[in-house]
Specification:
By secondary structure, this protein is an alpha+beta fold. It contains two helices and nine strands. It is elongated, with a radius of gyration of 20 Å.
Length: about 140
């Protein structure tokens, strides 16, 4: 019983945080200009979901965010990416790709002696991974 409770708590904690890896860009980093697209503003940061900003920008690095697959996953990834943009000194992030490694849930049950009680634990299976260019506007 205690193991089932600990498993449920661990699953809730792990599914609530996106893990973000950041790699700094090195190389010829002249200003680039995109042709526009769609964006969402998250915590004051432009998150370009499709396309790139139609204004001059410089690439600062690449951020890869991973989280357990679930209904809140995409918004938690965008929030984590917005925080990484601020840490890196940028203004925006440009989505490069998304990988969904499946979904579903694993459910475990245990029953008391004689069938007097039952407990159940559901754990999300699968992960969402998204990669973003972290950029700084130049105008």
């Amino acid at each position: 019983m205690m193991r089932a409770i600990l498993l449920a708590v661990a699953a809730a904690v792990l599914s609530g945080c996106a893990i973000v890896d950041y790699e700094k860009f090195e190389g010829a980093n002249q200003a680039q200009v995109g042709s526009g697209g769609t964006k969402t503003v998250v915590e004051g940061v432009d998150i370009w979901n499709y396309g790139a900003p139609p204004r001059p920008y410089r690439i600062l690095g690449m951020a890869t965010a991973t989280i357990a697959n679930g209904p809140a996953g995409p918004s938690m990834i965008r929030s984590s990416i917005a925080n990484k943009v601020k840490e890196a000194g940028g203004n925006a992030a440009i989505n490069v790709d998304n990988i969904d490694s499946g979904g579903g849930a694993a459910i475990g049950q245990s029953f008391g002696a004689g069938g007097g009680y039952a407990t159940s634990t559901a754990v999300l299976i699968g992960r969402i991974t998204a990669r973003y260019l972290i950029v700084r506007y130049e105008d």
